Protein backbone atom coordinates (compact mmCIF):
# COMPACT_ATOMS: atom_id res chain seq x y z
CA UNK A 1 0.00 0.00 0.00
CA UNK A 2 1.09 3.61 -0.62
CA UNK A 3 1.81 5.78 2.34
CA UNK A 4 -0.69 8.48 3.07
CA UNK A 5 -0.02 11.75 1.33
CA UNK A 6 1.89 10.22 -1.52
CA UNK A 7 1.39 12.17 -4.71
CA UNK A 8 0.94 10.60 -8.10
CA UNK A 9 2.19 11.83 -11.36
CA UNK A 10 0.21 12.21 -14.55
CA UNK A 11 1.32 8.82 -15.70
CA UNK A 12 0.48 7.34 -12.40
CA UNK A 13 -3.10 8.68 -12.56
CA UNK A 14 -3.63 7.25 -16.03
CA UNK A 15 -2.48 3.83 -14.84
CA UNK A 16 -4.84 3.89 -11.90
CA UNK A 17 -7.89 4.71 -14.00
CA UNK A 18 -7.38 1.98 -16.59
CA UNK A 19 -6.52 -0.91 -14.28
CA UNK A 20 -10.18 -1.89 -13.34
CA UNK A 21 -11.19 -2.10 -17.01
CA UNK A 22 -8.87 -4.97 -17.80
CA UNK A 23 -10.58 -7.83 -19.75
CA UNK A 24 -11.71 -10.90 -17.66
CA UNK A 25 -9.64 -14.01 -17.84
CA UNK A 26 -10.88 -16.96 -19.94
CA UNK A 27 -11.60 -20.26 -18.13
CA UNK A 28 -8.87 -22.78 -18.42
CA UNK A 29 -9.36 -25.26 -21.23
CA UNK A 30 -11.14 -28.52 -20.37
CA UNK A 31 -9.03 -31.55 -20.12
CA UNK A 32 -9.78 -34.52 -22.27
CA UNK A 33 -10.63 -36.47 -19.13
CA UNK A 34 -13.41 -34.03 -18.07
CA UNK A 35 -14.86 -34.04 -21.60
CA UNK A 36 -14.92 -37.80 -21.58
CA UNK A 37 -16.59 -37.94 -18.16
CA UNK A 38 -19.25 -35.44 -19.20
CA UNK A 39 -20.03 -37.42 -22.34
CA UNK A 40 -20.29 -40.61 -20.33
CA UNK A 41 -22.69 -38.94 -17.91
CA UNK A 42 -24.95 -37.80 -20.73
CA UNK A 43 -24.81 -41.20 -22.42
CA UNK A 44 -25.58 -42.96 -19.12
CA UNK A 45 -28.69 -40.81 -18.57
CA UNK A 46 -29.94 -41.59 -22.07
CA UNK A 47 -29.09 -45.27 -21.64
CA UNK A 48 -31.18 -45.40 -18.46
CA UNK A 49 -34.08 -43.70 -20.24
CA UNK A 50 -33.91 -45.90 -23.35
CA UNK A 51 -33.02 -49.29 -21.92
CA UNK A 52 -34.74 -49.09 -18.54
CA UNK A 53 -37.29 -46.28 -18.49
CA UNK A 54 -38.98 -46.97 -21.82
CA UNK A 55 -39.35 -50.77 -21.27
CA UNK A 56 -40.74 -50.21 -17.77
CA UNK A 57 -43.15 -47.57 -19.11
CA UNK A 58 -44.26 -49.78 -21.97
CA UNK A 59 -44.68 -52.76 -19.64
CA UNK A 60 -46.68 -50.85 -17.03
CA UNK A 61 -48.88 -49.01 -19.54
CA UNK A 62 -49.33 -51.76 -22.13
CA UNK A 63 -52.94 -52.62 -23.04
CA UNK A 64 -53.82 -56.29 -23.32
CA UNK A 65 -55.98 -56.93 -26.35
CA UNK A 66 -57.24 -60.47 -26.65
CA UNK A 67 -57.61 -61.68 -30.20
CA UNK A 68 -61.16 -61.58 -31.53
CA UNK A 69 -62.53 -63.10 -34.74
CA UNK A 70 -63.49 -59.70 -36.08
CA UNK A 71 -64.38 -60.80 -39.59
CA UNK A 72 -66.64 -63.59 -38.37
CA UNK A 73 -68.32 -61.19 -35.95
CA UNK A 74 -68.97 -58.74 -38.76
CA UNK A 75 -70.28 -61.54 -40.98
CA UNK A 76 -72.86 -62.43 -38.34
CA UNK A 77 -73.87 -58.79 -37.98
CA UNK A 78 -74.20 -58.36 -41.76
CA UNK A 79 -76.28 -61.52 -42.15
CA UNK A 80 -73.60 -63.34 -44.17
CA UNK A 81 -72.92 -66.12 -41.67
CA UNK A 82 -76.51 -67.30 -41.32
CA UNK A 83 -79.73 -66.94 -43.24
CA UNK A 84 -82.40 -67.93 -40.70
CA UNK A 85 -85.07 -70.22 -42.04
CA UNK A 86 -88.19 -71.50 -40.31
CA UNK A 87 -89.40 -74.81 -41.77
CA UNK A 88 -92.65 -75.70 -40.04
CA UNK A 89 -93.75 -79.32 -40.14
CA UNK A 90 -97.49 -79.76 -40.71
CA UNK A 91 -98.81 -83.26 -40.07
CA UNK A 92 -101.71 -84.47 -42.23
CA UNK A 93 -103.93 -87.09 -40.64
CA UNK A 94 -106.32 -88.67 -43.15
CA UNK A 95 -107.63 -91.93 -41.69
CA UNK A 96 -110.50 -92.20 -44.20
CA UNK A 97 -108.28 -91.94 -47.30
CA UNK A 98 -106.23 -94.59 -48.98
CA UNK A 99 -102.49 -94.16 -48.71
CA UNK A 100 -102.14 -93.20 -52.39
CA UNK A 101 -105.01 -90.72 -52.16
CA UNK A 102 -103.60 -89.16 -48.99
CA UNK A 103 -100.16 -88.73 -50.54
CA UNK A 104 -101.62 -87.23 -53.70
CA UNK A 105 -103.71 -84.79 -51.64
CA UNK A 106 -100.63 -83.86 -49.61
CA UNK A 107 -98.59 -83.16 -52.77
CA UNK A 108 -101.31 -80.96 -54.29
CA UNK A 109 -101.70 -79.07 -51.01
CA UNK A 110 -97.93 -78.55 -50.82
CA UNK A 111 -97.87 -77.12 -54.35
CA UNK A 112 -100.71 -74.78 -53.47
CA UNK A 113 -98.86 -73.65 -50.31
CA UNK A 114 -95.67 -72.96 -52.24
CA UNK A 115 -97.62 -70.82 -54.71
CA UNK A 116 -99.19 -68.82 -51.89
CA UNK A 117 -96.01 -68.31 -49.89
CA UNK A 118 -94.13 -65.07 -50.63
CA UNK A 119 -91.59 -65.35 -47.79
CA UNK A 120 -89.04 -68.06 -48.50
CA UNK A 121 -87.46 -67.95 -45.02
CA UNK A 122 -90.72 -69.17 -43.48
CA UNK A 123 -92.30 -72.14 -45.21
CA UNK A 124 -94.68 -74.97 -44.35
CA UNK A 125 -93.74 -78.57 -45.05
CA UNK A 126 -96.47 -81.20 -45.11
CA UNK A 127 -96.07 -84.81 -44.13
CA UNK A 128 -98.41 -87.68 -43.44
CA UNK A 129 -98.96 -88.60 -39.79
CA UNK A 130 -100.37 -91.63 -38.09
CA UNK A 131 -103.89 -91.29 -36.79
CA UNK A 132 -104.13 -90.12 -33.20
CA UNK A 133 -106.74 -92.85 -32.76
CA UNK A 134 -104.26 -95.70 -32.95
CA UNK A 135 -104.68 -99.34 -31.95
CA UNK A 136 -102.98 -98.50 -28.68
CA UNK A 137 -106.26 -97.01 -27.53
CA UNK A 138 -105.35 -93.32 -27.58
CA UNK A 139 -108.41 -91.14 -27.85
CA UNK A 140 -107.92 -87.98 -29.90
CA UNK A 141 -111.39 -86.59 -29.34
CA UNK A 142 -111.56 -82.89 -28.64
CA UNK A 143 -113.59 -81.70 -25.65
CA UNK A 144 -116.80 -80.02 -26.70
CA UNK A 145 -116.49 -77.15 -24.23
CA UNK A 146 -114.35 -74.28 -25.39
CA UNK A 147 -114.44 -72.54 -21.98
CA UNK A 148 -111.39 -74.17 -20.44
CA UNK A 149 -109.13 -72.88 -17.71
CA UNK A 150 -105.51 -72.16 -18.43
CA UNK A 151 -104.41 -75.26 -16.56
CA UNK A 152 -106.96 -77.44 -18.40
CA UNK A 153 -105.76 -76.06 -21.72
CA UNK A 154 -102.24 -77.33 -21.18
CA UNK A 155 -103.46 -80.59 -19.65
CA UNK A 156 -105.59 -81.25 -22.74
CA UNK A 157 -102.68 -80.31 -24.95
CA UNK A 158 -100.42 -82.83 -23.23
CA UNK A 159 -103.06 -85.56 -23.39
CA UNK A 160 -103.24 -85.24 -27.16
CA UNK A 161 -99.62 -86.42 -27.38
CA UNK A 162 -98.87 -84.26 -30.43
CA UNK A 163 -95.36 -84.73 -31.77
CA UNK A 164 -92.95 -81.98 -30.76
CA UNK A 165 -91.64 -81.45 -34.28
CA UNK A 166 -95.12 -80.75 -35.67
CA UNK A 167 -96.27 -77.17 -35.54
CA UNK A 168 -99.82 -78.18 -36.45
CA UNK A 169 -101.79 -81.32 -37.15
CA UNK A 170 -104.49 -81.19 -39.83
CA UNK A 171 -107.12 -83.83 -39.09
CA UNK A 172 -109.32 -84.66 -42.07
CA UNK A 173 -112.81 -86.01 -41.50
CA UNK A 174 -115.39 -86.90 -44.17
CA UNK A 175 -118.98 -85.84 -43.40
CA UNK A 176 -122.01 -86.62 -45.51
CA UNK A 177 -124.05 -83.74 -44.13
CA UNK A 178 -121.95 -80.91 -45.59
CA UNK A 179 -121.52 -79.62 -49.11
CA UNK A 180 -118.31 -77.56 -48.78
CA UNK A 181 -115.18 -77.99 -46.72
CA UNK A 182 -114.94 -76.21 -43.40
CA UNK A 183 -112.35 -76.06 -40.63
CA UNK A 184 -112.09 -75.40 -36.91
CA UNK A 185 -108.95 -74.75 -34.88
CA UNK A 186 -109.37 -75.89 -31.30
CA UNK A 187 -108.43 -73.24 -28.73
CA UNK A 188 -106.70 -75.74 -26.46
CA UNK A 189 -104.65 -77.73 -28.96
CA UNK A 190 -102.60 -77.54 -32.16
CA UNK A 191 -105.11 -79.58 -34.16
CA UNK A 192 -106.99 -78.15 -37.12
CA UNK A 193 -110.14 -80.16 -37.81
CA UNK A 194 -111.11 -80.11 -41.49
CA UNK A 195 -114.45 -81.56 -42.49
CA UNK A 196 -115.15 -82.25 -46.15
CA UNK A 197 -117.81 -83.86 -48.27
CA UNK A 198 -116.98 -87.34 -49.57
CA UNK A 199 -117.26 -86.18 -53.18
CA UNK A 200 -114.41 -83.70 -52.55
CA UNK A 201 -111.90 -86.51 -52.19
CA UNK A 202 -109.39 -86.07 -55.06
CA UNK A 203 -108.59 -89.01 -57.27
CA UNK A 204 -105.01 -90.08 -57.83
CA UNK A 205 -105.14 -88.93 -61.46
CA UNK A 206 -106.59 -85.45 -60.76
CA UNK A 207 -104.36 -82.42 -61.24
CA UNK A 208 -106.29 -80.05 -58.99
CA UNK A 209 -108.46 -80.29 -55.92
CA UNK A 210 -110.76 -77.84 -54.18
CA UNK A 211 -109.99 -79.57 -50.88
CA UNK A 212 -106.23 -79.07 -51.33
CA UNK A 213 -106.77 -75.41 -52.18
CA UNK A 214 -109.00 -74.96 -49.13
CA UNK A 215 -106.43 -76.55 -46.78
CA UNK A 216 -103.59 -74.48 -48.27
CA UNK A 217 -105.52 -71.22 -47.91
CA UNK A 218 -106.47 -72.05 -44.33
CA UNK A 219 -102.88 -72.88 -43.36
CA UNK A 220 -101.56 -69.74 -45.01
CA UNK A 221 -104.16 -67.71 -43.14
CA UNK A 222 -103.19 -69.23 -39.80
CA UNK A 223 -99.47 -68.46 -40.18
CA UNK A 224 -99.77 -65.14 -42.03
CA UNK A 225 -99.21 -63.02 -38.92
CA UNK A 226 -96.21 -65.09 -37.86
CA UNK A 227 -94.66 -64.71 -41.31
CA UNK A 228 -95.23 -60.96 -41.24
CA UNK A 229 -93.71 -60.60 -37.75
CA UNK A 230 -90.61 -62.61 -38.64
CA UNK A 231 -90.23 -60.72 -41.92
CA UNK A 232 -90.48 -57.48 -39.99
CA UNK A 233 -87.84 -58.58 -37.44
CA UNK A 234 -85.41 -59.93 -40.02
CA UNK A 235 -85.79 -56.90 -42.25
CA UNK A 236 -85.15 -54.34 -39.54
CA UNK A 237 -82.29 -56.24 -37.92
CA UNK A 238 -80.51 -56.97 -41.18
CA UNK A 239 -80.24 -53.46 -42.52
CA UNK A 240 -81.71 -51.14 -39.89
CA UNK A 241 -84.94 -49.17 -40.03
CA UNK A 242 -83.55 -46.70 -42.58
CA UNK A 243 -82.41 -49.40 -45.03
CA UNK A 244 -85.03 -52.10 -44.65
CA UNK A 245 -85.54 -52.29 -48.40
CA UNK A 246 -81.97 -53.53 -48.84
CA UNK A 247 -82.38 -56.43 -46.43
CA UNK A 248 -81.10 -59.78 -47.76
CA UNK A 249 -84.02 -61.52 -46.04
CA UNK A 250 -86.95 -59.54 -47.38
CA UNK A 251 -87.65 -58.55 -50.92
CA UNK A 252 -88.45 -54.88 -51.57
CA UNK A 253 -92.05 -55.75 -52.43
CA UNK A 254 -92.64 -57.35 -49.03
CA UNK A 255 -90.39 -55.21 -46.83
CA UNK A 256 -92.26 -53.42 -44.06
CA UNK A 257 -92.69 -49.76 -44.87
CA UNK A 258 -91.93 -50.14 -48.56
CA UNK A 259 -93.85 -48.14 -51.12
CA UNK A 260 -95.55 -51.20 -52.60
CA UNK A 261 -96.73 -52.38 -49.21
CA UNK A 262 -98.17 -48.97 -48.43
CA UNK A 263 -99.85 -48.59 -51.80
CA UNK A 264 -101.41 -51.97 -52.42
CA UNK A 265 -102.53 -55.03 -50.47
CA UNK A 266 -99.99 -57.79 -50.02
CA UNK A 267 -100.49 -61.35 -48.94
CA UNK A 268 -97.57 -61.07 -46.52
CA UNK A 269 -98.06 -57.57 -45.08
CA UNK A 270 -101.31 -55.84 -45.94
CA UNK A 271 -102.26 -52.44 -44.46
CA UNK A 272 -104.24 -54.04 -41.65
CA UNK A 273 -101.33 -56.32 -40.79
CA UNK A 274 -98.88 -53.42 -40.98
CA UNK A 275 -100.97 -51.45 -38.50
CA UNK A 276 -101.16 -54.46 -36.21
CA UNK A 277 -97.39 -54.93 -36.40
CA UNK A 278 -96.76 -51.28 -35.55
CA UNK A 279 -99.10 -51.55 -32.57
CA UNK A 280 -97.47 -54.80 -31.50
CA UNK A 281 -93.94 -53.36 -31.64
CA UNK A 282 -95.07 -50.36 -29.60
CA UNK A 283 -96.76 -52.51 -26.99
CA UNK A 284 -94.27 -55.37 -26.71
CA UNK A 285 -91.60 -55.34 -24.06
CA UNK A 286 -87.94 -55.68 -24.88
CA UNK A 287 -86.68 -59.18 -24.21
CA UNK A 288 -85.39 -59.91 -20.72
CA UNK A 289 -84.43 -63.29 -19.24
CA UNK A 290 -86.54 -62.52 -16.16
CA UNK A 291 -89.67 -60.42 -15.66
CA UNK A 292 -91.26 -59.44 -12.38
CA UNK A 293 -95.06 -59.40 -12.11
CA UNK A 294 -96.84 -57.39 -9.43
CA UNK A 295 -100.50 -58.25 -8.83
CA UNK A 296 -102.29 -55.45 -7.00
CA UNK A 297 -105.78 -55.11 -5.54
CA UNK A 298 -106.92 -51.49 -5.20
CA UNK A 299 -110.15 -50.28 -3.69
CA UNK A 300 -111.32 -46.75 -2.76
CA UNK A 301 -112.80 -48.08 0.50
CA UNK A 302 -111.87 -50.73 3.06
CA UNK A 303 -113.71 -53.53 1.25
CA UNK A 304 -112.76 -56.04 -0.03
CA UNK A 305 -110.07 -56.44 2.60
CA UNK A 306 -108.45 -59.61 1.19
CA UNK A 307 -108.44 -61.92 -1.82
CA UNK A 308 -107.65 -65.56 -2.45
CA UNK A 309 -104.86 -64.68 -4.83
CA UNK A 310 -102.45 -67.49 -4.01
CA UNK A 311 -104.83 -70.30 -4.97
CA UNK A 312 -106.10 -68.30 -7.95
CA UNK A 313 -102.57 -67.78 -9.26
CA UNK A 314 -101.75 -71.45 -8.83
CA UNK A 315 -104.77 -72.50 -10.90
CA UNK A 316 -105.15 -69.77 -13.51
CA UNK A 317 -101.74 -68.15 -14.10
CA UNK A 318 -98.92 -70.45 -12.96
CA UNK A 319 -99.57 -73.07 -15.72
CA UNK A 320 -99.15 -70.31 -18.32
CA UNK A 321 -95.94 -69.02 -16.73
CA UNK A 322 -94.55 -72.56 -16.61
CA UNK A 323 -95.35 -73.10 -20.28
CA UNK A 324 -93.42 -69.99 -21.36
CA UNK A 325 -90.49 -70.52 -18.99
CA UNK A 326 -88.41 -71.51 -22.04
CA UNK A 327 -88.84 -67.93 -23.28
CA UNK A 328 -88.44 -66.03 -20.00
CA UNK A 329 -88.68 -66.61 -16.28
CA UNK A 330 -91.17 -64.83 -14.03
CA UNK A 331 -91.40 -63.83 -10.40
CA UNK A 332 -94.73 -62.80 -8.88
CA UNK A 333 -95.71 -60.80 -5.81
CA UNK A 334 -99.05 -59.42 -4.62
CA UNK A 335 -100.29 -56.46 -2.62
CA UNK A 336 -103.53 -54.85 -1.40
CA UNK A 337 -104.10 -51.08 -1.15
CA UNK A 338 -107.11 -49.58 0.64
CA UNK A 339 -108.58 -46.10 0.14
CA UNK A 340 -106.95 -45.81 -3.29
CA UNK A 341 -108.25 -42.63 -4.87
CA UNK A 342 -108.03 -41.64 -8.52
CA UNK A 343 -105.27 -39.47 -9.86
CA UNK A 344 -106.18 -35.73 -9.73
CA UNK A 345 -105.97 -35.59 -13.53
CA UNK A 346 -108.80 -38.13 -13.91
CA UNK A 347 -112.32 -36.77 -14.17
CA UNK A 348 -114.87 -38.12 -11.74
CA UNK A 349 -117.00 -40.97 -13.13
CA UNK A 350 -120.18 -39.87 -14.86
CA UNK A 351 -123.48 -41.67 -14.53
CA UNK A 352 -125.03 -43.03 -17.73
CA UNK A 353 -128.73 -43.27 -17.01
CA UNK A 354 -129.53 -45.00 -20.31
CA UNK A 355 -127.31 -47.98 -19.55
CA UNK A 356 -127.38 -47.73 -15.78
CA UNK A 357 -123.60 -47.59 -15.45
CA UNK A 358 -120.88 -45.18 -14.35
CA UNK A 359 -118.38 -44.30 -17.05
CA UNK A 360 -114.75 -43.20 -17.28
CA UNK A 361 -113.56 -40.96 -20.10
CA UNK A 362 -111.35 -42.81 -22.57
CA UNK A 363 -108.75 -40.03 -22.49
CA UNK A 364 -108.40 -40.56 -18.72
CA UNK A 365 -107.28 -44.19 -19.02
CA UNK A 366 -103.60 -43.34 -19.49
CA UNK A 367 -103.68 -41.30 -16.25
CA UNK A 368 -105.89 -43.70 -14.31
CA UNK A 369 -102.95 -44.92 -12.22
CA UNK A 370 -102.30 -42.61 -9.29
CA UNK A 371 -98.52 -42.97 -9.26
CA UNK A 372 -98.12 -40.39 -6.50
CA UNK A 373 -100.14 -42.35 -3.92
CA UNK A 374 -100.40 -45.93 -5.17
CA UNK A 375 -97.39 -48.12 -4.18
CA UNK A 376 -96.42 -49.27 -7.64
CA UNK A 377 -92.68 -48.62 -7.63
CA UNK A 378 -90.59 -51.04 -9.69
CA UNK A 379 -89.34 -54.15 -7.96
CA UNK A 380 -85.81 -54.22 -6.64
CA UNK A 381 -85.17 -57.55 -8.34
CA UNK A 382 -83.59 -58.05 -11.75
CA UNK A 383 -85.61 -57.55 -14.90
CA UNK A 384 -88.45 -55.20 -15.86
CA UNK A 385 -91.66 -55.10 -13.87
CA UNK A 386 -95.18 -55.64 -15.18
CA UNK A 387 -98.01 -54.25 -13.04
CA UNK A 388 -101.45 -55.81 -13.18
CA UNK A 389 -104.04 -53.86 -11.21
CA UNK A 390 -107.43 -55.22 -10.15
CA UNK A 391 -109.56 -52.20 -9.22
CA UNK A 392 -112.77 -52.72 -7.25
CA UNK A 393 -114.83 -49.48 -7.34
CA UNK A 394 -117.05 -48.29 -4.56
CA UNK A 395 -120.69 -49.37 -4.48
CA UNK A 396 -121.81 -45.78 -5.12
CA UNK A 397 -119.96 -45.60 -8.48
CA UNK A 398 -120.50 -49.08 -9.84
CA UNK A 399 -120.80 -50.72 -12.26
CA UNK A 400 -117.87 -48.74 -13.67
CA UNK A 401 -116.94 -49.08 -17.36
CA UNK A 402 -115.17 -47.11 -20.07
CA UNK A 403 -117.41 -44.68 -21.88
CA UNK A 404 -118.27 -45.70 -25.43
CA UNK A 405 -116.66 -49.13 -25.56
CA UNK A 406 -118.19 -50.33 -22.26
CA UNK A 407 -114.86 -52.08 -21.62
CA UNK A 408 -113.66 -52.91 -18.15
CA UNK A 409 -109.98 -53.59 -18.93
CA UNK A 410 -107.19 -51.92 -20.86
CA UNK A 411 -103.44 -52.00 -21.47
CA UNK A 412 -100.88 -49.37 -20.55
CA UNK A 413 -97.90 -49.89 -22.92
CA UNK A 414 -94.63 -50.91 -21.25
CA UNK A 415 -96.28 -50.71 -17.82
CA UNK A 416 -99.04 -53.28 -17.39
CA UNK A 417 -102.78 -53.71 -17.43
CA UNK A 418 -105.88 -52.68 -15.47
CA UNK A 419 -109.08 -54.66 -14.88
CA UNK A 420 -112.14 -53.19 -13.18
CA UNK A 421 -114.02 -55.75 -11.08
CA UNK A 422 -117.40 -54.31 -10.20
CA UNK A 423 -118.83 -55.42 -6.85
CA UNK A 424 -122.00 -56.64 -8.55
CA UNK A 425 -119.94 -59.10 -10.63
CA UNK A 426 -118.02 -60.41 -7.62
CA UNK A 427 -120.82 -60.53 -5.04
CA UNK A 428 -122.12 -63.94 -6.05
CA UNK A 429 -118.75 -65.64 -5.62
CA UNK A 430 -117.22 -63.60 -2.78
CA UNK A 431 -117.40 -64.48 0.89
CA UNK A 432 -117.87 -61.45 3.12
CA UNK A 433 -115.12 -58.92 2.42
CA UNK A 434 -112.85 -61.51 0.75
CA UNK A 435 -112.64 -61.94 -3.00
CA UNK A 436 -112.86 -65.62 -3.75
CA UNK A 437 -110.81 -67.50 -6.31
CA UNK A 438 -113.83 -67.70 -8.63
CA UNK A 439 -114.34 -63.93 -8.43
CA UNK A 440 -110.72 -63.29 -9.42
CA UNK A 441 -110.79 -65.80 -12.29
CA UNK A 442 -112.02 -63.44 -15.08
CA UNK A 443 -109.43 -60.84 -14.14
CA UNK A 444 -106.56 -63.36 -14.14
CA UNK A 445 -107.62 -64.70 -17.53
CA UNK A 446 -107.59 -61.12 -18.84
CA UNK A 447 -104.16 -60.57 -17.27
CA UNK A 448 -102.96 -63.75 -19.02
CA UNK A 449 -103.96 -62.39 -22.43
CA UNK A 450 -102.39 -59.04 -21.60
CA UNK A 451 -99.15 -60.78 -20.59
CA UNK A 452 -98.99 -62.65 -23.90
CA UNK A 453 -99.58 -59.36 -25.68
CA UNK A 454 -96.67 -57.75 -23.83
CA UNK A 455 -94.41 -60.68 -24.73
CA UNK A 456 -95.26 -60.31 -28.43
CA UNK A 457 -97.43 -63.35 -29.04
CA UNK A 458 -99.68 -63.11 -32.13
CA UNK A 459 -103.22 -62.08 -31.39
CA UNK A 460 -105.03 -63.56 -34.39
CA UNK A 461 -104.51 -67.22 -33.46
CA UNK A 462 -107.38 -68.69 -31.42
CA UNK A 463 -105.21 -71.57 -30.19
CA UNK A 464 -103.19 -70.79 -27.07
CA UNK A 465 -100.62 -73.61 -27.57
CA UNK A 466 -100.14 -72.42 -31.15
CA UNK A 467 -99.58 -68.88 -29.87
CA UNK A 468 -96.86 -70.14 -27.53
CA UNK A 469 -95.16 -72.07 -30.33
CA UNK A 470 -95.19 -68.96 -32.49
CA UNK A 471 -93.80 -66.91 -29.61
CA UNK A 472 -90.92 -69.39 -29.33
CA UNK A 473 -90.00 -68.92 -32.99
CA UNK A 474 -90.35 -65.13 -32.82
CA UNK A 475 -88.15 -64.86 -29.74
CA UNK A 476 -85.56 -67.19 -31.24
CA UNK A 477 -85.35 -65.01 -34.35
CA UNK A 478 -85.15 -61.73 -32.42
CA UNK A 479 -82.50 -63.03 -29.99
CA UNK A 480 -80.43 -64.49 -32.83
CA UNK A 481 -80.35 -61.17 -34.62
CA UNK A 482 -79.87 -59.15 -31.43
CA UNK A 483 -76.80 -61.19 -30.44
CA UNK A 484 -75.45 -60.95 -34.00
CA UNK A 485 -75.89 -57.18 -33.96
CA UNK A 486 -74.06 -56.96 -30.62
CA UNK A 487 -71.15 -58.92 -32.11
CA UNK A 488 -70.96 -56.45 -34.98
CA UNK A 489 -71.00 -53.48 -32.60
CA UNK A 490 -68.21 -55.02 -30.53
CA UNK A 491 -66.11 -55.67 -33.63
CA UNK A 492 -66.54 -52.10 -34.88
CA UNK A 493 -65.71 -50.75 -31.42
CA UNK A 494 -62.53 -52.83 -31.32
CA UNK A 495 -61.37 -51.48 -34.67
CA UNK A 496 -62.36 -47.86 -33.94
CA UNK A 497 -60.58 -47.73 -30.55
CA UNK A 498 -57.18 -49.46 -30.87
CA UNK A 499 -56.17 -48.23 -27.40
CA UNK A 500 -59.02 -49.96 -25.60
CA UNK A 501 -58.19 -53.05 -23.54
CA UNK A 502 -59.81 -56.35 -24.48
CA UNK A 503 -59.57 -58.82 -21.59
CA UNK A 504 -59.67 -62.57 -22.02
CA UNK A 505 -63.18 -62.65 -20.55
CA UNK A 506 -64.42 -60.76 -23.61
CA UNK A 507 -62.73 -63.24 -25.93
CA UNK A 508 -64.33 -66.11 -24.03
CA UNK A 509 -67.75 -64.46 -24.20
CA UNK A 510 -67.36 -63.86 -27.94
CA UNK A 511 -66.38 -67.49 -28.59
CA UNK A 512 -69.37 -68.69 -26.57
CA UNK A 513 -71.70 -66.31 -28.40
CA UNK A 514 -70.55 -67.37 -31.85
CA UNK A 515 -70.77 -71.03 -30.91
CA UNK A 516 -74.35 -70.72 -29.67
CA UNK A 517 -75.28 -68.59 -32.67
CA UNK A 518 -74.16 -71.41 -34.94
CA UNK A 519 -76.19 -73.89 -32.88
CA UNK A 520 -79.20 -71.58 -33.07
CA UNK A 521 -78.96 -71.18 -36.83
CA UNK A 522 -78.62 -74.93 -37.38
CA UNK A 523 -81.49 -75.70 -35.01
CA UNK A 524 -83.75 -73.25 -36.86
CA UNK A 525 -82.95 -74.86 -40.19
CA UNK A 526 -83.75 -78.28 -38.73
CA UNK A 527 -87.03 -77.08 -37.23
CA UNK A 528 -85.88 -77.58 -33.60
CA UNK A 529 -87.25 -74.28 -32.38
CA UNK A 530 -87.15 -74.98 -28.64
CA UNK A 531 -83.48 -75.89 -28.89
CA UNK A 532 -82.86 -72.83 -31.04
CA UNK A 533 -84.47 -70.59 -28.43
CA UNK A 534 -82.32 -72.06 -25.64
CA UNK A 535 -79.12 -71.43 -27.57
CA UNK A 536 -80.28 -67.97 -28.65
CA UNK A 537 -80.90 -66.99 -25.03
CA UNK A 538 -77.37 -68.08 -24.07
CA UNK A 539 -75.90 -66.26 -27.08
CA UNK A 540 -77.73 -63.04 -26.14
CA UNK A 541 -76.55 -63.24 -22.51
CA UNK A 542 -72.93 -63.91 -23.51
CA UNK A 543 -72.97 -61.13 -26.11
CA UNK A 544 -74.26 -58.62 -23.57
CA UNK A 545 -71.68 -59.78 -21.02
CA UNK A 546 -68.83 -59.35 -23.49
CA UNK A 547 -69.96 -55.97 -24.81
CA UNK A 548 -70.53 -54.43 -21.37
CA UNK A 549 -67.29 -55.68 -19.80
CA UNK A 550 -66.47 -53.26 -16.96
CA UNK A 551 -62.80 -52.84 -17.85
CA UNK A 552 -63.75 -51.90 -21.41
CA UNK A 553 -66.60 -49.53 -20.67
CA UNK A 554 -64.37 -47.31 -18.53
CA UNK A 555 -61.86 -46.80 -21.35
CA UNK A 556 -64.31 -46.01 -24.11
CA UNK A 557 -64.61 -42.43 -22.85
CA UNK A 558 -60.85 -41.78 -22.26
CA UNK A 559 -59.62 -39.61 -25.18
CA UNK A 560 -55.97 -38.98 -26.15
CA UNK A 561 -56.14 -35.40 -24.83
CA UNK A 562 -56.35 -36.78 -21.31
CA UNK A 563 -53.18 -38.78 -21.85
CA UNK A 564 -51.31 -35.68 -23.02
CA UNK A 565 -52.50 -33.80 -19.96
CA UNK A 566 -51.16 -36.56 -17.72
CA UNK A 567 -47.75 -37.12 -19.35
CA UNK A 568 -46.75 -33.56 -20.27
CA UNK A 569 -46.14 -32.28 -16.69
CA UNK A 570 -43.98 -35.33 -16.02
CA UNK A 571 -41.98 -35.51 -19.24
CA UNK A 572 -41.36 -31.75 -19.57
CA UNK A 573 -39.02 -31.17 -16.58
CA UNK A 574 -37.14 -34.41 -17.28
CA UNK A 575 -37.02 -34.38 -21.04
CA UNK A 576 -35.97 -30.77 -21.68
CA UNK A 577 -32.59 -30.95 -19.76
CA UNK A 578 -31.77 -34.31 -21.33
CA UNK A 579 -32.48 -33.11 -24.86
CA UNK A 580 -30.65 -29.79 -24.43
CA UNK A 581 -27.54 -31.42 -22.95
CA UNK A 582 -27.47 -33.98 -25.72
CA UNK A 583 -27.77 -31.27 -28.38
CA UNK A 584 -25.03 -29.22 -26.74
CA UNK A 585 -22.69 -32.20 -26.59
CA UNK A 586 -23.35 -33.05 -30.22
CA UNK A 587 -22.65 -29.46 -31.21
CA UNK A 588 -19.33 -29.54 -29.32
CA UNK A 589 -18.30 -32.77 -30.96
CA UNK A 590 -19.13 -31.37 -34.38
CA UNK A 591 -17.07 -28.21 -33.72
CA UNK A 592 -14.15 -30.23 -32.39
CA UNK A 593 -14.09 -32.49 -35.41
CA UNK A 594 -14.34 -29.53 -37.74
CA UNK A 595 -11.38 -27.87 -35.98
CA UNK A 596 -9.31 -31.01 -36.29
CA UNK A 597 -9.99 -31.16 -40.05
CA UNK A 598 -8.83 -27.53 -40.50
TrEMBL record:
Q: Per its UniProt record, what InterPro entries does this chain match? A: PtdIno-glycan_biosynth_class_S
Keyword Methyltransferase set for record: no
Q: Where are the transmembrane segments?
A: 40-59
Swiss-Prot/TrEMBL keywords = Endoplasmic reticulum, Glycoprotein, GPI-anchor biosynthesis, Membrane, Transmembrane, Transmembrane helix
Pfam families associated with the record: PIG-S (PF10510)
Pathway assignment:
Glycolipid biosynthesis; glycosylphosphatidylinositol-anchor biosynthesis
Per UniProt, subcellular location reads as: Endoplasmic reticulum membrane
Report membrane topology: Multi-pass membrane protein
Q: Which residue intervals make up region (Disordered)?
A: 1-32
UniProt similarity note: Belongs to the PIGS family.
> What's this protein's name?
GPI transamidase component PIG-S
Question: Whose protein is this, by species?
Answer: Lepraria finkii
Amino acid sequence: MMAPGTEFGEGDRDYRLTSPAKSSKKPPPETSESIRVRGLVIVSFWAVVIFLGLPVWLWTTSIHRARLPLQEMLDWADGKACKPTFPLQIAIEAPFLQDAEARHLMRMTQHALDDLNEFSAHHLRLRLAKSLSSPSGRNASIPESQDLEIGQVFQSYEDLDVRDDSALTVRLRAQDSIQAARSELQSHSTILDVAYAPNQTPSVSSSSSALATFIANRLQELFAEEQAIIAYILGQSAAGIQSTLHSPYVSPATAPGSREVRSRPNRLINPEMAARLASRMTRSLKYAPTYHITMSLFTPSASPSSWQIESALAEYLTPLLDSISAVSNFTVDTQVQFHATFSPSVHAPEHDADHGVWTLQEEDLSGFINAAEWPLSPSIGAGPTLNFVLYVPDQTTSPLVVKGTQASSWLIPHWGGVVILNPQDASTTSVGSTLSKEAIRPALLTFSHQLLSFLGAPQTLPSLPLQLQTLTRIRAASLLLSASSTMGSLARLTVALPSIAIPETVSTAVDATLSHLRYTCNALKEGKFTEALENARIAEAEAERGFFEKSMVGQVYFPDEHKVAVYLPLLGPVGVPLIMSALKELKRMWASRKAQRT
